[in-house]
Design a protein that fits this description.
It is a single chain. By secondary structure, the protein is α+β, with helices and mostly antiparallel strands. It is 22% helix and 27% strand. Strands 5, 10, 13, 14, 15, 19, 20 and 21 form an eight-stranded mixed β-sheet that branches. Helix 6 (98-112) crosses helix 18 (502-526) and helix 12 (355-364) packs across helix 13 (373-384). The longest helix is centred in the middle third of the chain and has 25 residues, at 502-526. The radius of gyration is 42 Å and the shape is elongated. 30% of the residues are buried. Residues 330-352, 651-676 have a biased composition (Basic and acidic residues). One of its GO terms (cellular component) is nucleus. One of its GO terms (biological process) is protein deubiquitination. InterPro entries: Papain-like_cys_pep_sf, Peptidase_C19, Peptidase_C19_UCH, UBL_USP40, USP, USP_CS.
Length: 1254
Amino acid sequence: MFGNLFVEDEEASSSTSSKGRVLKGPEEPPPPRGRSNLCGIKNQGGTCYLNSLLQTLLFTPEFREKLFSLGSEELGCLEDKDSPGAKESLICIKHVRLIPLQLQRLFVRLLLLDQHSASTAELTDSFGWNTTEGTNQHDVQELNRILFSALEHSLVGTTGSSFINSLYHGTIVNSIVCKECGNVSQRQEDFLDLTACVCGVSSLEEALWNMFVEEELFEGNNLYRCAECNKLVTAAKSAKMRKLPPFMTMSLLRFSFDFAKCERYKETGRYSFPLNINLRAFCEQAEGDDSDYSYELFSVIIHKGGCYGGHYHVYIKDIDQLGCWEPPEEESKPKAKKKTSEEKACESKPQEEDPLSILTAIISQEPSKTVLVDQLGQKLMNNFGFSWNKKFKKQCGAIGKFLQSHGEVFMLVSNGSKVTLKANSTEPIVPEQTNDAQGEGDQDTEGSRWFDLNDSTVTSIRERDIEKQFQGKESAYMLFYRKTQLRRPPQALNNPQYKVPPQLIKLAQEENLKLQLSREEFEATNNTIELHLHLAPLYKLENGALQPVCKESESTSLSFDRRKTVGDLRLAIYQMQDPWEGDMALTVAKSLPAGLHLYNTLTDDAVSLYSAGVTNNTDLFVWNGTEVCGSPVLTGAEWEPVLLTVVRPSLDHDMDEPKDQDPTKGEAPGLRKEARGFAGGSTLGEVKQALGEPEESLLCQEARGSVEPGAGEGGGASGWRVFPPDDMLRTLKELSLKDGDAVLVLEPQSFDSSVFTLDGDVVTVTTPSDCRWLQVEHQPNIRHGQREEEPSKVKVLATGNTLLLEVKQRAMERIQELEQRPLEGAEYCLRHVDSAGKLLPPVCEELSVREAGVRLMTTLTLSLGRAPEASQLFLSFSVGVAPSAGLERDIIVEKTCTVRECLKQMLDEVGLEGSGWHLRQLDWCEEVGEALMDEDTPLSDLKISNGETLIIAEGQLPPKGFLKLFVWLLVSDSRPSVDNGFMEDSVRAVNGAEDVPVCGCEHARLRAVGQVEISDEATLDELKTQVLTLPALSDLCVPTSAFLRLWQLEERRLARLLRGPQTMLRKLKLTSETNVCIQQLFKEEDLGAKDVLLKVKVAVPGEARYYPSEELLWDASKDPSARSLRSCVAAHYGLSPDSLLLAKFQPEKHAWEEISSWNQQMSKKKKKKRTESLLGAPFQLRDGDTIGIKNLLIDGNRDFCTSEDRLGQQRLREQVELGKGDQADGFCSTEQKKKQAKSRKPEVGLSISVGEFR
């Protein structure tokens, strides 16, 4: 009835994945007990009420021992119930008393099992509860009575059939005294617990006084009929306790009903109760010692919340001293006499200078005794006012390494993401107390050992903390008293095995052994990392980076325990690479676009791999530490290689014999490009030397944003800036040159050509539109690189507006004159020839040179055949397999022709019949690729471009289970950043399609690059690999698929980031016809399940606009709260998190939703009761969301809206006003639906199923 309000308060103990740390291992075993040495109970979702009552019964020694006194001869054995013949033997099942047996086992686990918390699943199964019952919250008073009744029924016919009555049963006698004759009428009532009124009463004593001392008079209209007088008389009614039980249970009636409002409510006023109470005044017989009537409080069940929802936990006094009580951390420094500032400085200085004691104190004051490693530095700042980096990093190293090096005190759990204290660790150092304060603390420790058992969490509290539960929404609900006469024997103290049956002790010992083995196995697996070894003999130094000698050479994988030392790793590699000559150095390496680069060398053999910063999937280079193949290698971040695109002129000195140009490449005629890597610490002068250029050569950098439309297609020019002489002494890093940047190398004679002009420090590269000629060559038998004789070549004057038909006619006339013979054949066409000598598709003669995309100053071939018209496509095709030299056929079809019609024409061309054929495209490897699934779709809609080759494949279309995905490329209008970027200049849009803008994404466009066909059983990594086979992406240079990011598109919006390289497409819920977008990165990326990729942009102070947005990767796996996001943003920009204000942009509303501060998500006790997740409502952060940032230190305006946002909001308001009348009814119905949705579920009664044992 309470839904999900009753959730576990403790930190989630499940294993949290930590990106890049360790290999995936077995499930994490339960952690050991905390410093209290007491075991908590797991919450099944809403069983906090059950957990509180069970802990109270466990810490009632007399109840526990009575239960343990029942053996298997009376209760039966659980093994008999689960035996193969149990179903046939009903007698066997009848005598197995499940509830007491499971309660015994639970108590043994709570007492003896070394685990942080125990499960009640087996016990609730014995209750007959289903899985949903564990999520329903019930009243603990109701459970107390039902559980006792179930135990009594379960123990019928055993020696324990009356032990509930012997411990909790009492009697009350109600008396009515006639005022006229003095006749006394009595009626006796039994009770297991007393209900005390709270409404209108200030204390438990007052409530008991009203119940057992105050008399109720029957007078006036409310008279009593006396049996002796036989008439209505005045009488007095009273009640007294006749028999007191050893244990007195008081239920406080905090829930009442307001008849005026017709609703329930909770009494939250002050209601006190004593730690010790004497009930003599409330008893019928007052003789005897005070000890017969004296009770002491030993358990308080507390309810937090209202009458429709809340949470239970319990304060318990440890009677048998089974736990390890210690003063609560927040009160471990009691008030003492005032001291001088010098004395205080002397006391605080050792505390603040000792990082071990500081971290121990921070961890020990957490309720769960565990802290996220990423949050430890922030807690240090909050508690002590200084950071780890400034105070201790210089002498102690990083905080993670410090924790690892002090394994005797700290223990890393949950894949190293959390830290806790070991059970035998030293206590945190606290300042000395005065004698008065010391005595007070000792007295509190000896006189009461109270603990707060809150589901899985067990913490020490002081006796005076009980007074805090007198009032408020979190207040006492049930009180448990025990007679002071009940004394525990000395052998029961500090002895959890006291009176526990031997067979149950043996069972606990076996389970403890299994837990120990599983923890050792988990630790071993959890600390195993995968290393990639690169051996020096297989590499060479080239272009400032290490390159493999053979493309087939791969790194050697090695699984190793990160707790072992560097020396152990070195010895293992020695054994693997026996023999190894000379010294061996192990250096951390990283794969960059330019090649493999080396960073820090592991020199200290005594340091563990964890302390050395070696993580999972780390690349290690094994070498002699000085050179590779005789070449010295520069290491470190400052020498990171940069992959530059070196552009050189490729001018023809003999204009009569111009070089062939390949129009399929991204290079402009007259230029050739080459990728070269250089060390980032090299100067520009050293780069010129490495390129072998003379001193007088010029190096130029491309002028950003200066490329004019139409460059390279009939008009325009590109600009380059010459590096000044001073830049020759600056390094590539200082010049901010990044991977992919282009550098133009020009010799002085290059300016003799009309292509290059120098104006000051700007070099202009003129496109071929100013060179007005085309060369046409003719060779009758040229095809697929077969040449029989030198072709005839002629030059034809042409401009961008000249029709290609005119060019062909002029060329044919001059060739006939040159060869002095007529041309063979009736029809001729103009075609390009690639560098391999293969004929490319004919150009459309109806178009001009510019319209057809033909570059001037290039060569065309005059070939036999017909040229396609503007509405037609020239296609090549073959039957069965990819075409080899001379075997493919050519066909011209209309662009509006469907796939089915095109297939029929091709079949008619080759003389084939039948319906068992379908068409496939060729991939970039010239192999048979994806099938054309939609046979009724026009070729133009499928983006079949001119010159493509199709394969007539035998058989029907591929079966179901294959996905056809449309692939787009994300193109950025801005320059790439260091983290990621785009190299889309060499990527052509399919069929000349124009780029489309991305919704909600500034400075980005989508470019169609093709489609792929792939099985839904394929992995995401395989999809990336197949996408790279698209012809439009053939010039895209990607080392591995990890350098690609894949998005799912919805209405031109980046809707979802696809992650998980080995995740199947079916599990990613990709369907056919889905649009996916590929984005190229400059570094590898492997996103975790809860890594969120956000776009962040900082507001310009004092202005309603923002700086350009940046990408931010936020790891939300450990802490998805606003605090974690703010810390991540602050670390990214180097700002203080307290000064930042964040907001999420809602593009559909043109509004910003401010993300509340984490200070508002902390309770008064500074205990995080429930983690606020930004991944859920109301923010629901997803990949691609935009986060606005304001620095309140320099910008006091908290409004995130820009002028564009306000215009968008105004348009939305106008649209609402237009349709206001039509939407009114719909709005009302929506409100009604919301009210109906808020109605509470009907309450479910609590019951426990018990078998018949009579």
